[in-house]
């Protein structure tokens, strides 16, 4: 069996940068499920070839964030309510293990870093809801990174972005104040333990997120992709 074709490091770095920018645009609600992602428009926006844009779309497709169709037009994936429930179920199981590994081991510096993210959430609570969702996502991904376990980091990161896509597609507006309070309580529970208490708190928190936010949705709309992505391209 032939080995998968690799791409030069410089091109790989550009692919990674485009993926990061598109994930952020998605989690902040600038991109919504159903939005088209033409290769030529992505190439123009990010100043890359269509080949690099195609590689980025392929990566995001592997993560479940993009759908690649036969006519070569990629779109942001549109999760169903059933898929959303499955994604949150998997996320709960993964993140219970994350806090189980961290319980009683979180350092003062790590706790302070997590609280800084929560402070940013608090400051953003009256701004665009996409900003609150992005910061909440960063909180959970940072928890996974603190385990220093590559498997947790990879799969929690992926499932958090897929959960964010579900919220973008199916959510109704909800108060971020509850999530902020729950994040602070989680930090305390992880610091003090025991592991089963911290895991149960994480389960309750994520179940509440799904309950507060999911299953209402307004559908997608046609918009100018280049204008939407220009701010994200500048930061990539």
Descriptive overview:
By secondary structure, this protein is mainly alpha-helical. It folds into two domains: 11-78 and 220-234, Arc Repressor Mutant, subunit A; 81-213, Up-down Bundle (Four Helix Bundle (Hemerythrin (Met), subunit A)), CATH 1.20.120.530. It is 69% helix and 3% strand. It has a three-stranded antiparallel sheet with strand order 1-3-2. Helix 4 (81-102) runs antiparallel to helix 9, helix 5 packs antiparallel against helix 6 and helix 5 runs antiparallel to helix 8. The longest helix is centred in the middle third of the chain and has 22 residues, at 81-102. 41% of the residues are buried. Residues 215-222 have low confidence and may be disordered.
Going by CATH, the homologous superfamily of the largest domain would be GntR ligand-binding domain-like
Named CATH architecture of the largest domain: Up-down Bundle
* Strand percent estimate: under 5%
Broad shape: globular
Order of helices and strands: HEHHEEHHHHHHH
Spans with pLDDT under 50 lasting ≥5 residues?
215-222
Average pLDDT, all residues: 85
> How helix-rich are the residues, as a percent range?
55-70%
Strand order of the largest sheet: 1-3-2
CATH class value of the largest domain: Mainly Alpha
> Rg to the nearest angstrom?
18 Å
What is the overall number of helices?
10
Distance between the termini: 35 Å
Give the total of beta strands: 3
* SSE-based structural type: mainly alpha
The tally of structural domains comes to 2
The oligomeric state is: single chain
């Amino acid at each position: 069996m032939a080995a998968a074709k690799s791409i030069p490091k410089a091109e790989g770095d550009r692919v990674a940068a485009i993926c990061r920018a598109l994930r952020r645009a998605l989690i902040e609600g600038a991109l919504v499920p159903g939005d088209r992602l033409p290769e030529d428009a992505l190439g123009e926006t990010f100043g890359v070839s269509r080949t690099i844009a195609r590689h980025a779309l392929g990566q995001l497709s592997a993560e479940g964030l993009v759908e690649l169709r036969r006519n070569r037009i990629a779109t942001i994936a549109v999760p169903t309510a059933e898929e959303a429930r499955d994604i949150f179920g998997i996320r709960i199981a993964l993140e219970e293990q994350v806090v189980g590994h961290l319980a009683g081991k979180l350092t003062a510096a790590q706790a302070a870093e997590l609280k800084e993210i929560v402070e940013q959430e608090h400051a953003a609570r009256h701004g665009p809801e996409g900003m609150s969702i992005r910061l909440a996502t960063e909180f959970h991904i940072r928890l996974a990174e603190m385990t220093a376990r590559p498997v947790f980091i990879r799969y929690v990161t992926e499932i958090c972005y897929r959960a964010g896509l579900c919220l973008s597609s199916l959510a109704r507006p909800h108060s971020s104040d509850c999530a902020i309070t729950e994040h602070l309580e989680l930090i305390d529970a992880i610091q003090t333990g025991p592991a089963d208490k911290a895991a149960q708190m994480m389960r309750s928190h994520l179940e509440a997120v799904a309950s507060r936010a999911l299953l209402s949705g307004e559908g997608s709309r046609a918009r100018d992709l280049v204008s939407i992505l220009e701010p994200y391209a500048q930061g990539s």
